[in-house]
């Protein structure tokens, strides 16, 4: 049977660096800082002991890669992160610096929303485990209507796969003015 390749963790990489260099956490951090990396001995020791619970910065991950003698891609994957690509600013079209302040603000706000959404998706994936499908955030739609119910024309939208119970109730019940008034005196008299 072929042997499965296990990806190292950050802890594995810090332990590798400590063993290969015969150094403890403080000495590893000092060496990394002397070579232009930003990492503290507290971070090194926390990762090494398995007590590190924060999301490591890009600088921390790069320092660990250098200390362990592995590529940055390996270290980023060990941290459960996608290796950063080229800077986003490099992909912006010419003329972007000429946008009006309102246009720039709108573009930045849109990007902030996208980044926040992306981080939330990554968090959800992390909470459910590494093997979860990327396109399934664990949400489900309601599909409990009979097959013989005919939908109004144009009801099915390209992006809709189903509806919530509340939307179904509203659709089936309609608005209050769509229903006959109950028997009783006019105008509440």
Description:
With 189 residues, this protein is an all-alpha fold. Among the domains are: 10-78, 434 Repressor (Amino-terminal Domain); 88-128. The chain is built from seven helices and no strands. It has helices at 10-21, 25-34, 41-49, 58-68, 72-78, 101-128, 165-173. α4 crosses α5 (72-78). The longest helix is centred in the middle third of the chain and has 28 residues, at 101-128.
Output the structural class. mainly alpha
Question: What would you say the CATH architecture of one domain is?
Answer: Orthogonal Bundle
- End-to-end separation in angstroms reads 85 Å
Q: Rounded to an integer, what's the Rg over CA atoms?
A: 28 Å
Strand content: under 5%
Kindly list the characteristics that best describe this protein:
single chain, 189 residues, mainly alpha, 434 Repressor (Amino-terminal Domain), 7 helices
Question: Layout of SSEs?
Answer:
Blueprint: H1 10-21, H2 25-34, H3 41-49, H4 58-68, H5 72-78, H6 101-128, H7 165-173
In short:
By secondary structure, this protein is mostly helical.
């Amino acid at each position: 049977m072929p042997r499965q390749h296990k990806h190292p963790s950050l802890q594995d990489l810090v332990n590798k660096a400590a063993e290969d260099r015969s150094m403890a956490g403080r000495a590893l951090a000092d060496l990394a800082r002397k070579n232009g990396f930003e990492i503290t001995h507290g971070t090194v020791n926390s990762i090494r002991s398995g007590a590190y619970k924060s999301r490591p910065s890009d600088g921390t991950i790069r320092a660990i890669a250098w200390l362990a003698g592995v590529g940055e891609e390996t270290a980023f994957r060990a941290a459960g992160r996608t290796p950063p690509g080229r800077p986003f600013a490099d992909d912006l079209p010419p003329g972007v610096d000429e946008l009006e302040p309102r246009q720039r603000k709108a573009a930045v706000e849109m990007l902030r929303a996208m980044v926040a959404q992306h981080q939330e998706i990554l968090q959800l994936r992390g909470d459910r485990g590494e093997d979860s499908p990327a396109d399934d955030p664990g949400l489900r739609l309601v599909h409990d209507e009979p097959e013989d119910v005919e939908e109004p024309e144009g009801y099915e939208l390209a992006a809709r796969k189903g509806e919530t119970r509340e939307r179904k109730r509203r659709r089936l019940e309609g608005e209050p003015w769509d229903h006959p008034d109950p028997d009783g005196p006019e105008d509440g008299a």
